């Protein structure tokens, strides 16, 4: 008996945290489509028909592709170097005689976790409480490795009124007691384009959470822990040392507890963030005795800023540094009310040794409330800051 020909419109995917169907390693095919593909040998002569597949319900993959040769049905394990797939045929690197000599399909010997594909078609999909959601109509199979990319379901109209079958990522269902149980909520279902866009935003946010290529306030950077890949704390950052100009970060000073202080070279290479901590891929090997020389960045904080006549007009309140680039990005200052309204801060270029600043240099400044810092890593803020600093 051949597999039934099944046709459907796969309009939806499930959950932004699960892999989208189009993200499978290769283009999946419907189980029903295999009916139409002749099975040929290396010469192109037809030697068999596709009869069925055998699904490993625990691993969620097609463990065997089953061929009918005469009166015999023969399973070939997947994946196999002896099978090559194209859009219109399946080629076996086996002559018909050798295929006929292979053992016939014996489901009893495989064990209960293995089910014939056509026996799974028509089984029910229920929610964890046993409420019927729909019926399994097809499977999407990745022929390169046998993985079941998706289970295709016709939902009960009482559950979902939209027409068309739905390709549900295999990770969103599990096989149980002769049918499938949904591990997703119906509210998680969304059009494929929306699911893909949400997944991209999720991936971008995850990457942003791990990158150290970001601006950090020195006052918040101090006290952050350096950890190894296993999560062991190596020490806490207590300062950043710069070159004489104060614009290039050379190394971070690290408090290693009873061992005193150490350092880690900047820019950091290959490091990531885990929450507020910095993960050093080489662990303690990245730490070294602090070199001589350099300027401590924390000494900038609190320093007075003066006008061209030498009168104090403000103070540095924070420094912004990027550990991935090793750059001291800018300073943040507070000025007397005759210059800038009280309670507001102003980003400025890293002040030189003379610490002189002119009032007209603050024209068009990116002023913000001291109690309400902006997101200094927002792409638009960074772009505006770069343009602003270039004008100073």
Descriptors for this entry?
single chain, 392 residues, mainly beta, SH3 type barrels, 3 domains, 8-stranded mixed beta sheet, 7-stranded mixed beta sheet, 30 strands, elongated, disordered N terminus
Question: Could you explain how this protein is built, in words?
Answer:
This protein has 392 residues and is mainly β. The protein folds into three domains: 1-210, Roll (SH3 type barrels), CATH 2.30.30.240; 215-295, PRC-barrel domain (SH3 type barrels, Roll), CATH 2.30.30; 297-391, SH3 type barrels. The chain has six helices and 30 strands. It has helices at residues 96-101, 107-110, 117-120, 192-210, 218-221, 379-391; strands at residues 12-14, 29-30, 39-40, 46-56, 61-69, 72-77, 83-85, 90-92, 114-116, 124-126, 132-141, 148-155, 166-169, 173-176, 179-182, 189-191, 215-217, 225-227, 233-242, 249-255, 261-265, 272-274, 277-279, 287-288, 295-296, 304-306, 312-322, 327-335, 344-348, 368-369. The protein is elongated.
